[in-house]
From TrEMBL:
Its EC number is 2.4.-.-. The keyword Transferase applies. Residues 5-127 form the Glycosyltransferase 2-like domain. It comes from Halomonas alkalicola. This is Glycosyltransferase family 2 protein. It comes from the Bacteria.
Length: 259
């Protein structure tokens, strides 16, 4: 029985998925299962994943019959997960070799049911662009101001929470999931050590940022059901922090917004 279940949605990920899977195979901690859910890919990624499945019985592939989005793909993996701990890794991101070992030890030594780590941002070629730190702890209110938990670093104890599924009525499904968990506990706890690498793409433009801001507002109002004034308060924090991180990164770092 695996101790950790790794949830990996995949859609047309042929360029990076082999590297992602290899980063799991390279983990110093070995009691895991990796559940990859193919979201109706049209490239060669399924064949690439199958090659790993044939080599290692800890890797499992689920294929969806239509393109359903990351939330439904992750939920399909969570549904069949056997591990006590649920961890997340998208098909273009990477883990460093001691990620699972160090994060699990951090959680078990302190009896933390929900934890995350710091991580690097990398470009399409794997070059490090910058660091995103992990605050020592965040509450529900803290997280509403800015989502400081990277999906590729989050891990929760399903024995404590039960299986928590991602909401499908928002494009900020990971953010919404962390908020759901933080309604059950006072804090999520951060291990401020770079243990993962998040891939950033050239086509991530200001238009994407505008869409993300709109989705954040929808999350506050439609998912969390915050009042207009409360949503405006938290959105102002989100907007100001985002502006400073983008336009004045040195100042943002001094204010603790980058690490």
């Amino acid at each position: 029985m695996p101790l950790i279940s790794i949830v990996t949605p995949s859609h047309n990920s042929a360029r990076f998925v082999s590297e992602t899977i290899q980063s799991v195979l390279d983990q110093s901690f070995v009691e895991w299962e990796m559940i990859i859910v193919d979201d109706f890919s049209t490239d060669d990624s399924v064949e690439m994943i199958k090659a790993f499945v044939e080599r290692d019985s800890r890797i499992n592939l689920i294929r969806l019959t239509k393109n359903s989005g990351a939330a439904l793909a992750r939920n399909a993996a969570i549904e069949v997960a056997k591990g006590r701990y649920i961890a997340f890794l998208d098909s273009d991101d990477l883990w460093l070799p001691y990620k699972l070992e160090k994060q699990l030890a951090f959680m078990q030594a302190n009896n933390y049911p929900f934890a995350y780590t710091a991580y690097d941002k990398i470009d399409e070629e794997g070059l490090v662009l910058g660091r995103i730190g992990a605050p020592g702890k965040v509450s529900y209110s803290d997280l509403l101001k800015t989502c400081s938990i990277g999906c590729l670093t989050a891990m929760y104890d399903a024995d404590f929470f039960g299986k928590i599924y991602m909401p499908v009525n928002t494009k900020r499904e990971d953010f919404a999931t962390w908020l759901k968990l933080l309604k059950e506990v006072d804090y999520a706890y951060g291990l401020n050590e770079n243990l993962a690498q998040y891939r950033v793409y050239k086509n991530q433009t200001s238009a994407n940022k505008a869409k993300m801001a709109k989705e954040n507002w929808r999350l506050y109002r439609d998912v969390e059901r915050l009042s207009f004034l409360t949503a405006t308060y938290y959105f102002s924090h989100y907007a100001i922090r985002g502006f400073l991180r983008t336009k004045f990164p040195v100042l943002a770092r001094r204010l603790g917004m980058l690490d």
